[in-house]
C-alpha cells in the first residue's frame, strides 16, 4: 500500500501545474459549496426565528379543531391543566395566553378588516418581540383605558396616529354585535406585512369584554430556549394534556409555508450543487484521463512486468484520491474561513429590504451558519465524486493490452 | 302522401306555439315576482332570529325602504344593540354604533360578510334589485311548493353582472308570482343556501310572505329567520330618512 501511495504521489506531482489547477478547481468548488450551504442555513434559521419571535412562537395550543376551522367560540378548555402543563415543561423561555378574533377597525377616515389579538402585556414580551418594534407611542400597559397597539401600515390606511381613537366592530361569541372605542397608544413596525397591515393588539381583558368571552382565552403560545427542542416539547405537552380537548401545534404546522419555502430553497440549492459537481467532475475526469493517455506505454511496461489490472485501477484511483484530498483540505479550510468570517460580521442585504420583508425577515443582515453536517456532507461528497469519476479512466488503463500498449506512441 | 306531408308542415309551427303558450314569459315572471315582493316603498317592523349551534339571538328592527336601493334599518332590541342603525344607498352601506357614537362605512371587501352575524350577507341586502336586471331567466317547469302550484324559474347571471351566485332557482306562485322558495347556487353549481318564504298573508294591499327562512346547506343547526310584524307598502317616505345624519338622529 505504501508503495502505491508513493507512486501515486509522485505521479501526481510529475505534472505540477496541471495538478495544482485541478486541486484549485476542487478547492474552490468545495469552498463555494460550503459557503452557500452555510448562507442558506443561516438565512433559513433567521426566517424561522423572525416568524417565531414576531408572533407564532415555537408551540401553540388551542381547543382541538381551532387551527383548521377557527371560530370565536372555540376557546381553550381546562385552562388550569394547560397552565400547569406549560409550567412543568422544561426549557421554556416564555409563555403567554391570547384572545384571538376578527373584526372591522374603523377610524374617522377609513375602515379595514383586522385580526384582533388580546394579550397580557407582561407575559407577551417573553414570547414575542413586538414590544421592541414600537416606533411611536408605547407598548400596551395595564391600567390605561382601553389602549390598542397597531401596525404602521394599518395606521396609515386608517389615517390614525398615537392618541387617536379607533372603533372595533366585531361579532361576539354569543352572536351579539360588539362595538367599542379604543385609544391608539402605540404604533409598531415589525417588518412583517401581515402584522403591520392587519393586526390590532388589545389588552386581553378588553378583548374578552369585546368578544363576550369572560375569563376565556383562544391560544397559549410558548417560546422555547432552543428551536431544536420543539418536537420533544410538543410531545411532552401532548402527553400531559392527553385527556384535554386541545391541539398542540409546533410552529411549522402553524405556518407551514416557512418550512415549505425552506424545502423549496434547499431544492434549488441541490440543483446548484449538482451543476457544481458536474463541473468539478469534468475537470477531474479531464485531468485523470489525460494522465492515463499519456502513460499508455508506462502502463504497458508495468503490466508486462507483472502489475495486475486491479492494481492499475488502484493506482489511478489513488492519484485521483490524493488530488481530491488535497483539494478538500484547502477547500474545506477556505470555505470554513469565509463562512466563519461572515458569521461573525454578517452580510447586509439592505438593498433588497422589501423582498426580505415579504419573506418575513425583520432584519436585512444575514449570518451564515457553519454546521458540522454541512462540512461532513460537503467534504465527503466531493471526495466521493472524485473517486467515482476516476474509475472510468482507471478501468480503461486496466484493460490495456500490455504488448500493444508498450508500442504506443 | 304528399298531402300528409303538406299538412305536417302547415300544422307543425302551430303545434309548437300551442305548447309554448302554456308557459309565461320568464323575464316577465321575474319582474312580477320582484314587484310583488317590494312595491315602490316599504316600511314596518320585523324581527330577525339567528340560530347557531352555540347560541340563538333575535334582533327587533324598524325599517324603511325605497325600491330599488335605499334602506334604513334601526335596531330596537335587544338592549346591547338598541339604537344601532344601518343605511344603504346604492352599493354603499354604513352602520352607526350608539355606544361609541361612531358611523362606520362598510368597505366593499366586507360586502360578502354576514349582516349582523346572520345568514344574509351585506350583499344579499343590496342584491335584491338585480334579480331582474343582472340575470337571464328561463322557466324550467312546474313544482308544488308549500302547497302552492308554482313555476320553476332559473335565473342565470349575465356575463359581466356583479353577482356572486352561479345560478338561482326560484319557485314562484302561479297565482301571484310570490316566491315560495329560492335556491342559491355557487359558480361550481353547488347548492349553498335555501330560502323559504312562509306564512303568506294579507299585508296592506297585497299578499306577502311574513316569514323568510334562510338556511345554509350542509350546516345543521344554523339558520336565520326574518319575521315581518308589520308592513306598509307604497306610503311615501321622506328623503331625509336615508341620510347619514339620520343614522345619528334615528327618527
Helix content of chain A: 40-55%
Multimeric state: heterodimer
Q: CA-to-CA gap between the ends of chain A?
A: 30 Å
Estimated structural class of chain B: alpha+beta
Average predicted confidence as pLDDT of chain A: 88
Terminal CA distance of chain B: 80 Å
Give the SSE order of chain A as H and E letters: HHEHEEEEHEEHEHEHEHHHHEHEHH
Domain tally of chain B: 1
- Give the beta-strand count of chain A: 12
Unreliable residue stretches of chain B: 14-20
CATH architecture verdict of chain B = Clam
| CATH level 1 class label of chain B | Mainly Beta
Radius of gyration of chain B: 21 Å
Name the beta content range of chain A.
Answer: 15-25%
What features would you highlight for this structure?
heterodimer; A: 409 residues; alpha+beta; six-stranded mixed β-barrel; two-stranded antiparallel ribbon; 14 helices; 54% helix; 19% strand; elongated; B: 251 residues; outer membrane lipoprotein receptor (LolB), chain A; 13-stranded antiparallel beta sheet; 5 helices; 13 strands; globular
